[in-house]
Amino acid sequence: MHAMGSEAPSEARVVRLAPGCNPARLPLSPAEGYLLSRIDGATPWRLLREIGGLTPEDVDRCLERWIDQGILLVADGAPGPNGAKRSAPPASPRPAEPPAAAAPAPAALASRPEEAIDASLEIPVEAQRRILAFEAKLDRPYHEILGVAKDADARTVKRAYFELSKEYHPDRYFRKRVGRHGERLERIFRKVLEAYELLADPTTRAEVQRSLDAAAAAPPAAPPSPPTPLSVVARPSPPAAPASSAPPAPPTAPRPRAPRISTAHLRALAQRKAKAKTFFEAGMAAFQASRWLEAASSVRLALAFDPWNAAYKESFAGVQRRANDERAKQFVKEAESALELRQPKEALRLYEEALHCVPHEPEINYKAARLALVLGEDPKRAKEYAARACELRPEVPAHHRLLGQIYKSGGLVANARRELEAALRLDPRDAEARQELKTLGRG
Length: 443
Prior knowledge:
Elements: E1 15-17, H1 30-37, H2 45-51, H3 56-68, E2 72-74, H4 106-111, H5 125-135, H6 142-146, H7 154-168, H8 181-200, H9 202-216, H10 230-234, H11 263-288, H12 292-305, H13 310-340, H14 344-357, H15 362-375, H16 379-392, H17 397-409, H18 413-426, H19 431-442
């Protein structure tokens, strides 16, 4: 315990983000993202241990690691590790180099898409082109990212998200060679998930709009002064007159003043940021307690009140994925209860709700496909779920057998035979697949 009025050297340090470091590009956990968001170049190490959302020991480990990695710098004159004085490196006379960790901007990738195409990867070339094209528009408004109208209702937003998640969810290419497209899919899906969660909830959607309106209320920057006309520059200056008889200089046009943001506007923006901080801190506390749904709700509100905060964006994806996993488990449990009550339609609806949360979970796709086949109301939907289960887990015989049965019910004999034979190759003892194949042969 320290004496009254004194601090240990390590606790007196003040750290700041290194120039050129973009927190949004760092592989951080939600808790680490929150800690990094508290670092402002003024808050001492001691206080970061109290407000960092982690245990004091974990805060120490994170900060020391980030200092060693060059992510953080210790303020000039402040004690460095083990109490040694450490200051930021002097400015180099050479031109500053771009951060080494910075990835090419989406727009740059889109400008030369063929350079990122690799036909040797286990992802179709056309799909690679679609990934590159979609990544190039990630800075657009949320509704444009989802491809819906600005006033689209929640059902339309949900349908758009589901279709995009089937195409761009990283799990679609699980265990396949995708090269740098894996990083692109992560970026795309994070943004699609963010857009969906903020637009599908009426509360957060309204707050996002209020945040955008508040930002739009700020007046534009002052226009630059007009250049001096070429005729004035080219005209020779008259000879200078004696100082005693020099006429007064002509009055120059007043320089335009920079527009002033009203105090009320600044106060409104500050209040929204303060609310966002409160929501985010509550979300991180819930996350540490493994209350995933509560954490996701709070972080979603934080992002709605401050949609430009990179730390909130980085944390949101991880928190929301945990929440989606929890939601999916609940829907599957309710679906199984509906089956016990002999309510197959309700069970199918609940399985599909689970797939909105985890679209590439093979077992849920298989169960949804089997129910859709039994109900016989939408063969196309049954085929989609079964095909996805086969794509995700091609080594499971039951997946191919079910897809073969679905093709058979639709009269697609060649496709049915292909899938049933695949099931038997995987498991020669699959009597059901063998019987289906015999029946198919007689047909």
